[in-house]
Amino acid sequence: MSLQMVRPGGVAPLLKAEHVSLEFGAVRATHDVSFDVYQGDRFVLLGPSGCGKSSLLKAAAGFIRPASGSISINGAPVTGPGPDRIVVFQEFDQLPPWKSVKENVMFPLLTAQRLPRREAEARARHWIAKVGLSGFEDAYPHTLSGGMKQRVAIARALAMQPQVLLMDEPFAALDALTRRNMQEELGRLWEELRFTLLFVTHSIEEALVVGNRILLLSPHPGRVRAELNSHQFGLDSAGSAEFQAASQRIHQLLFESPAAPAHAAPMHAASPYVAAAHPAPTPEAWSAAR
Fold first, then answer.
1. Which residues contact 248 (CB under 8 A, 6 or more apart)?
2. Angle at 255 between CA 254 and CA 258, to 5 degrees
3. pLDDT digit string, tens, across residues 181-206
4. What pLDDT, in 10s, does the model give residues 80-106?
5. CB atoms within 10 A of CB 78
6. Residue 107, CB half-sphere, CA atoms under 13 Å: how many?
7. Is the entire prediction scored with pTM above 0.90?
8. Coil/strand/helix, residue 27
9. Of 32, 240, 260, 268, which has the highest C-beta tally within 10 A?
């Protein structure tokens, strides 16, 4: 039996990945990846295209089975999809076009037989209002902008009240202004609801803005490069010198070869945003980083 890393106070992870390697035929997408997601975390998987970060999220959702290692939620192994883990994808066509906004949000509640129809409709209206789409309940997806469609997808996911909300580059296809607005809206929702978030992105700036913890993955196949704290950053600090320094340091960690230390900036233990480098931190190191 493996030992679980716990936060100070004895809190065990909500979602735990242990030595996960993912393979597609002869291609290895990730190699020996481990991380812990705690209740209320905004945990970001960050890395270049092809590093396996989206595959890790799909494995956490139960869509992919690891070639080796395991993923568990509340100590129980993930063996398939479940209502405790709901995914918001990047694609705008994740909403059935023949269903209205309200019907899209109601659909998983009714399919999972979580609520009778009248209660499902009331909950759908509640979450549609939460994401700022009151008045659009009867609109159809083809009449909505990309940002509005993603708001519907977020409302649909949160209406299911999952233990972990999984988001796979949900804002990548949006224009810069809409993307920033959606990041702000996601932060507002998290401040109000404190849900647990596992978020995938290849944008360093987005990772710093969205996450309170960031796992850096190397280029293909994805291996853990470092785990960082980023709770001190937000949209209001995006132009600060500290934010820019953190962004530059993350770029170095992601793309400078660990086999060539002479060309890499040193890791400073006193850095305010470096929580741990691979291998995974001890509980004492986690405590010191917090």
1. none
2. 85
3. 999 999 999 999 999 999 999 999 99
4. 999 999 999 887 778 999 999 999 999
5. 23
6. 17
7. no
8. strand
9. 32
pLDDT, position 27: 92
What secondary structure does DSSP assign to 28-81, as a single string?
EEEEEEEEEE-TT-EEEEE--TTSSHHHHHHHHHTSS--SEEEEEETTEEP-S-
What are the backbone angles phi and psi of residue 73, rounded to the nearest 5°? Answer: -130, 125
φ, ψ at 11 (rounded to 5°):
-85, 125
- Strands 164-168 and 197-201 turn out to be parallel
Read off the pLDDT of residues 255-281 as tens digits, 9 standing for 90 and up. 876 554 333 333 333 334 444 444 333
209: tokens are 């803005």
Annotated domain spans of the chain: 15-84+165-289, 95-161
Q: Do strands 42-46 and 213-217 pair parallel, antiparallel, or not at all (unpaired)?
A: parallel
Q: pLDDT digit string (tens) for 12-54?
A: 999 999 999 999 988 999 999 999 999 999 999 999 999 999 9
15-84+165-289 homologous superfamily: P-loop containing nucleotide triphosphate hydrolases (3.40.50.300)
Contact 275, 228 (CB under 8 A): yes
Token pair in block for residue 180? 């920033």
**Residue in 65, 70, 79, 84 with CA at minimum distance from that of residue 36:** 70
- Tokens 């995938």: give the residue: 200
For tokens 């998983």, what's the residue?
Answer: 108
Taking CB atoms within 8 Å and a gap of at least 24, the contacts of 175-179 are 175/146, 178/145, 178/146, 178/147, 179/206
